[in-house]
# Entry
Amino acid sequence: MLSRKLFTVGPVNVEQEVLQSMTKPMITHRSKEYKALHQGIIEKMKKALDTDMDILMVSGSASVFLEGMIRNGVRSKTLGLTNGSFGNRSIEIAELNGKTVEKVQVEWGKAIRADHIKGKVKDDIEAVHWVSNESSTGVFSDSNEIAAEVRSQNPDALLFVDAVTSAFAMDLKLRELNADAVVFGSQKALALPPGLAMIAVSNRLLEKAKTIQGRGFYTDLLKIKKQNDENYALTTPPVSLMYALDLQLDRALSEGMQARYRRHKEMADMVEGWAGEKLHGIFPEKGFRSNAISVMNRGDLDFDKFHSALKSKGYEISNGYGDVKERTFRIGHMGDTMPSGLKQLLSVMNEILEEKE
# Structure
């Protein structure tokens, strides 16, 4: 199989050292060795994200916890904020679980702002949910601004944040945010293979869960927390992937989280400069652009031909997504991607554009 360097939105490129760490001997998930592994991962993750919240894990994609936060925290009604495909997905998840969702639709390419929800967080809204880093548009909304506005209207409303492509790439300031659920996964800025979902949960959400029926089994946060408190998993976990997660947390802490966030910002600036010079600029509005994903205006570029040429040279990026699929394309620059590697990609892309002329 042809090996390509992935600059995709996810799964992202996984370094050989990380893949190699997954070849350690298997252990059972009820052993002392597993308990030590599990405990170490949770402690390192709390340190990296600077939070005292409980962090829970299950095998699967992050969507399992997007569903879990709804099933554990909402009896009947939510307010769903969306400015792209993945905000729409959270709304769909809530509705498929039988909840009524009041919707706030924000123009694609624009950030969700406090003004968008003025007067909308009524007393019957149990939770407000949104995506911090919308990967269909490359927009990073200020979750702290949104959270403050929610609290000003309805302090009892729970705060649910999809941080799938922002956690470990951009500083979410979790202590200031004080959300009730922050969801992410292994295959984005943690630069791991897919297969682990994670959620940081508040005591407030866990207390609400005690009053709600129909939490399910796999999505029951109380069941998962009970096992997590003993450094066990609810069901058989992907131990090999956890070896790799443990290594990645060591690497992130060694780099320093603020240095990691600065590296992601440097790469976002590189792509923004390139897109302005070579194409038609960046799609999302200024001041609210992701540091993990760059979404570019395609213009008259034949993306399929361009991408085929790029793949033949050993690189892969991502097509546009959702309602702006035909107008944009995306470059993922998160996880272990370095500015030097991104510079190489942009150089190859320049060569392809010059060949086209």
